Amino acid sequence: MSVQINDCIDLIIQESAETHAQTLKPIFAHDYKMLDEAMQNAKAGFWCLNLNTQELKMSDSFRARLTREELNRLETTGFFSIVHKDDVDRVKAKWEKDIITGYIDLKYRLVLEGEGEIWQRSHGCVQCDENGIPENVFVLMTDATGEFEKESHLILAEQSSKAKSEFLARMSHEIRTPLNAIIGMADAIKDEPLSPDALETVQYIDEAAQGLHQLLTQTLDHAKLISAKAEAEWELADPKKVLADSMRLWRPQCLKKGLKLNILQGRDIPKSVLIDRFKLGQCLNNLLSNAIKFTRNGSITVILKRAEYRNQDSLIIAVKDTGIGMSSEAKSKVFDEFTQADTSIKREYGGTGLGMNITQRLVQIMEGHISVSSQKGEGSTFVIALPLKTNVTDRSVKQKTEPVEIKSVERSPGVSAKINHIKPDIHPKHPPFSNMSVLCVEDNPVNQRVIEKLIGKRVEALHFADNGQEALEKLTTLQVDIVLMDIHMPVMDGIEATLEIRKSKMPWANVIIIALTADPDYQQARICRNLGMNGTISKPVTRQDIAQAFESAISNIASNFGEPAYLPVKVPA
Questions:
Q1: How far apart are the C-alpha atoms of 394 and 414, rounded to whole Å?
Q2: What pTM was computed for the model?
C-alpha cells in the first residue's frame, strides 16, 4: 500500500503537460527526503487511487500522520473512514462530480487520533483509459485549517452584523412606537385650555421626548453606518431645493432663539446635480442642528457655491454660525465618535457626540470631504465639498424600482371635488383640512388615539381600520380622501394593502395614501413611493408633520390633474 514520494511524483508528472514535467521533475527529484519532511511539517501529502481496484497509495508524509488503527481502516473501508461524518455525504457527492469533470477540488475535515479535527484540501486530476473511462486519480493534499478559520471568522462577522442590524431595526420600531404616543399626545394637548404652568409642563415633556428621539436617531444612524456597507443613492436633483428643505425645517428653531437664518447662493449652481438627496439632507440637518444648539445670539448662514476643490469642479456647502466656537484641541477631535469639546459642553448641551462623526461618514460615502474652521468664542464654519456631476454617466447610478402601474380610473369624488375648495385659513376654528375625510389604518390602539387627538377635530371625518384587509372593506362603503397607512400590521400589512388598492380598478384606486412608519429609513420611503404611495411620515408624528404631508400630496395631485390647489402658507399650531 505504501509508495515512496518519488513514485507519486512520477505518477503526477506523467499526467502533467510536457513543459511542466520538464520543470517539476528535476526539482522534486533533487532531494525527495527533504521534500517529504517539509510536507510532513506542512501537513501535506500525495495520494492516488485506482478507480478499478480501489487501491489507495499514499506518500510517506501522509502515512506518518496516521496510527496503525487508522491505516487499517483505510485499507478495509477506504479514505472516507477518516473524514468527518458530517462531511462524508457532501464530499462523496462532490467527488462523483469531479471524477466526471476530470479535476478534483475537495475541502473537508479529517478526524485523526494524533491531530484531532483538521481541515484539508485535495487538488488533483483524473487519468482516463484509451476509451475515455476514468481509471486513476492523483491528488495533492494540503492543510486548509487556517483558510477555514478565516472563512469562519468572516461568516461569524457577517452573521453578527446581520443580527445587529435586525436588532437595531426592531429596537428602532419598538422605541419609536411609545415615543410616538408621548410626542403626539404632548403636541395634541397644547390645543386644550391649559394654565401657563400646565402648558409649560407639557412643553418640558415634549422637549424631553424630542431629545430622546434625536439621541435614538443618531445612535441608530451611527450603528448602521459602521455595521453596513452603505452606498450613495445617486439621483439628479436641485441642490438649492435640498438646502431650502433643510432650512425650512430649522427656521422655527432659529426664530425661537432669536437667530437670523441666512442663505447665500452662487448664480452658477446647476439646477440638476447628481447627488444623494437623503444623505446630503442628513448632513445639512446635523450641521444646522449643531449650529443652532451652540449659538446663543447672532446668525447662522448657509452658503452654496460652485468652486474648484482639489483640481475638481465641486459643489461647496458651508454652514457658518456666530456661536461659542472651539479650541484647537476640540477642533482636532470634532469628527471623532462619542466626543465633545469638554465636559461642560456635555453637561450644558447634552448629545451623544455622534452627529459630526455621522456627517463625516455620510460625506465620505458621497465621495466628498468635510472640514471645519473655528476659534473659541468666535463661531464655527463647517464646509462640505462634493464632486459636481451633472450627467448620469458621471456616476454609477442605481436603477430605481419601477413604480406599480396604476390604471386610469375615475378619481375618488371626494378628492377631485375638494381640491379647489382648500382655502387659506382666516379663522383658527376652521382648520385647513376641515372638509377632508381620512381613514387611518393602524393596529396599535395608542397610536390610533394619537392620530385622533392630533387631527380628529381638524378634518371632516376620521375613520380607523386595524389592518389592511379591514381598510379595503371600509373603502368600499366610505368616501375617503386620504389614507394614513401604517406599514407593519397583522392580517394584511400596509404594503400589501397599498398594492391591493392600486390594482383594484375601483373608484378609490387612486386615493391619496400616506405611509405612517416607525422605520424612518430612506429605503423604506423609496419603497413606499415606488409602490404608489403619495408620501411618508416617520413616527413619532406631530400635527405639523401630518399637515405638511397632506399639503404636499394634495399639491402634487392638483399639479398632475391641472387643477389649482389653494393651500395655507402657514399651518396653525
A1: 45
A2: 0.45
Contacts of 195 (CB under 8 A, 6+ apart): none
Place of cell 383594484: 504
Interval 318-358: pLDDT, tens: 999 999 999 888 888 888 865 554 544 544 444 556 778 88
* Alpha-carbon separation of residue 315 from 50, 288, 546 (angstroms): 70, 18, 33
Report whether pLDDT(60) > 70.
Answer: yes
Give CA–CA dist 492/398, Å, rounded. Answer: 30
Show the CA angle centred on residue 212, arms to residues 209 and 215, nearest 5°. 155
Beta strands (DSSP E) in 90-192 are 103-112, 116-128, 134-143
The CA-atom distances, in angstroms, between 456 and each of 207, 439, 453, 464 are: 24, 11, 6, 11
Tell me the per-residue pLDDT of 227-251, one tens digit each, with 9 for 90 and over: 555 677 888 889 998 898 888 878 8
Range 164-181 burial, b when 16+ CB lie within 10 A, else e: eeeebbeebbebbbebbb
Among 207-211, 373-377, 386-390, 477-481, the range scoring the smallest mean pLDDT is: 207-211
Distance, CA of 269 to CA of 271 (rounded, Å): 6
CA–CA dist 318, 301 (Å, integer)? 8
CB 105 within 8 A of CB 98: yes
CA dist 535 and 319 (Å) reads: 29
Q: Which residues, in sequence order, are CB contacts of 91 under 8 Å at separation 6+?
A: 80, 83, 106, 108
The answer to whether 299 and 259 have CB atoms below 8 angstroms apart is yes
Helices H / strands E in the chain, number of each: 19, 17
- The Cα–Cα gap between 279 and 386 comes to 12
> How buried is 199 (Cβ within 10 angstroms: 0-12 exposed, 13-18 middle, 19+ buried)?
middle
* CB-based contact 70:15 (threshold 8 Å): no
Domains and CATH numbers, the chain: 5-143 (3.30.450.20), 160-231 (1.10.287), 233-397 (3.30.565.10), 413-561 (3.40.50.2300)
Averaged pLDDT, 467-473: 95
Q: Which positions ≥6 away from 51 have C-beta within 8 Å?
A: 99, 134, 135, 136, 137
